[in-house]
Structure formats: structure tokens, C-alpha cells
Design brief:
By secondary structure, the protein is an all-beta fold. It has one helix and 24 strands. Helix content is 1%, strand content 49%. The strands form six sheets. The protein has a four-stranded antiparallel beta sheet with strand order 1-24-23-22, with no helix packed on it. A four-stranded antiparallel beta sheet has the order 2-3-4-5, with no helix packed on it.
Length: 284
């Protein structure tokens, strides 16, 4: 079914399944090309991996100071954000203290891949080797290209979860602490001209966090203030796909499964600040 223009519940609510549950907040979730599930545990400073459905979570790296977003290199290594804390992000561009650590998931060997980001909260890839990193306690989306950091590449308040569209022309960005919950659209060839693309009704609650999309371009946003996951199929079409406990236990990130049947690609996986990793089957 489709979203109604009024911000109500999605017509067919998926049945949630708990994949993992343990004390401590989840921050991010991502699947590599082999279909392995990676997540960060913010309070514990850990990068975790579940190799296949039913396997126990394994610690890939611990001791990360403020673990944030996750992306992957072509060599199979994981890039995980550090410095994703209010204290580290509070100085913004004046003293950027965050960065990305490159980790070999097979051996746990790791090194700093890039330093000098504002927060590395949401992290996503773009075309031509670009990597974007957000800061919800500051201004601007930072860009990494060819080993260099461009601070404030796109001026945008309180950026968080991000995803590039399938045409690789635009970056959609959740804004967390805006008065009205908003998803902005940034043209990759004109980053100074960010525009609100989706604005939620006031009563919808907010604190937008993680963001992903399906192959059709429908967006899925974690709204941890209200405890929801939103399905957004157009600028005026949004609805509640999943309704759970609100902040401080609300959803933090969303990602679709990948790989050879390990985690079904039709399922949306949701992490929460309440320490749950959930599967919403047959979402796409």
C-alpha cells in the first residue's frame, strides 16, 4: 500500500522481530557486500558484526571514542566513525575532533583513515569516491575526497542520517534538532543550495536520526523522538511504518538487508537507543 497524504500509519504494519537485544544504545547499522551486519554500540565504544542470520554478535573493534556511522571500502574493510559525541562536536569547524577508523573485519587490525571531521555521526558514500559525514550538534555536512576533508561542504543545520539517490545526483539528509522534522535535499553539484524536501506535520514528533532508501527511491527515516520509523515516498507523502518506544529508547538507524539470504534484502533492520536490533520483514 501507499502512504496517505495525512501522516498516519502505513496500511500494513510489518511484524517486528528481535534479532539482538542487550544493554546499551545502538548508534548505526550497515550491511557489507557479503551481507554481514555491522553496528556500533555508542555507550560501549564497539563496532559489532553478525556474520549471518542466527549467529552471535562478535566484537570487531572496541575502545572507539564515540563510535558513529559506518561505510565500507572496496577492499572489504569497514570505515567507522569516531568522535560522535556532543563534547567532541561542540566546537564544530573551529576544532574538528572526529574522523574515520579503517578496520579489517577479519583480523581487527585498524588505523585512522581520516581525522578532522566535525562529528562522523551519519556517514555515507557518494559517487567518485566521495564520503559525506554529518554533525547534528553543528552546522554543515563535511566531505572527504581523495584523502582531504572539506569542512562544511554543504551548509545545513543539525545534519544526521544521509543517503544518495539512485541517480547519484542528490544527497538526502535528516535534520535532527530543527523546529519541524525535516529531510533536506542537497544537489551534489550545488551543495550550497540545500532545500527542505520533506517536512513532517508538527504533531509527528521528531529527532530524525538514521536514513536509508530502497531501490524505488522511497526513504525510510528513524524518528527517535516519537519512537517511529517513517516511510516517505514523496515530498508530501509520509507515514508511520513502525511505532515503538520514544526517546530515549527510540530508533537510531535503519538499513535494508543484503547478501545471499543471510539477512533478507526485503527486510528493514532497525537499531534503537534502547539496545534492540529489530527486523521488519517484507518492507520492500
Amino acid at each position: 500500500g501507499a502512504c496517505a497524504s495525512a501522516f498516519g500509519d502505513f496500511p500494513t504494519q510489518p511484524q517486528r522481530r528481535v534479532v539482538d537485544c542487550s544493554p546499551g544504545a545502538f548508534e548505526s547499522i550497515a550491511f557489507d557486500s557479503e551481507g554481514r551486519l555491522f553496528s556500533t554500540r555508542s555507550g560501549q565504544g564497539k563496532l559489532m558484526m553478525i556474520a549471518r542470520k542466527g549467529a552471535k554478535p562478535k566484537t570487531v573493534l572496541d575502545g572507539i571514542d564515540g563510535p558513529g556511522g559506518i561505510v565500507f571500502r572496496r577492499n572489504g574493510n569497514v570505515l567507522v566513525g569516531y568522535g560522535d559525541t556532543i563534547a567532541q562536536a561542540s566546537d564544530g569547524e573551529a576544532d574538528p575532533q572526529a574522523g574515520l577508523i579503517e578496520v579489517d573485519p577479519k583480523t581487527g587490525e585498524h588505523h585512522v583513515f581520516i581525522h578532522g571531521l566535525q562529528m562522523a555521526n551519519g556517514v555515507t558514500r557518494g559517487p567518485g569516491g566521495q564520503i559525506f559525514a554529518s554533525t547534528d550538534f553543528g552546522t554543515g555536512v563535511d566531505r572527504i575526497l581523495k584523502g582531504d576533508v572539506e569542512l562544511g561542504w554543504a551548509p545545513l543545520d543539525s545534519s544526521n542520517g544521509m543517503v544518495v539517490d539512485s541517480a547519484k545526483r542528490n544527497l538526502f539528509v535528516n535534520q535532527t534538532f530543527t523546529p519541524i522534522p525535516t529531510i533536506a535535499k542537497i544537489a551534489l553539484d550545488d551543495p550550497t543550495g540545500a532545500q527542505p524536501w520533506f517536512t513532517a506535520p508538527d504533531e509527528a514528533g521528531g529527532f530524525l536520526d538514521g536514513l536509508t532508501r530502497d531501490a524505488d527511491g522511497t526513504l525510510y527515516a528513524a524518528a527517535n523522538g516519537s519512537g517511529d520509523v517513517w516511510r516517505i515516498s514523496g515530498p508530501d507523502e509520509g507515514c508511520v511504518l513502525y511505532d515503538g518506544p520514544p526517546f530515549p529508547s527510540g530508533p537510531s538507524a535503519v538499513a535494508f538487508g543484503r547478501g545471499q539470504g543471510r539477512f533478507p534484502k526485503g527486510s528493514l533492520f532497525v537499531t534503537t537507543f534502547g539496545g534492540q536490533l529489530l527486523q521488519l520483514p517484507h518492507v520492500r
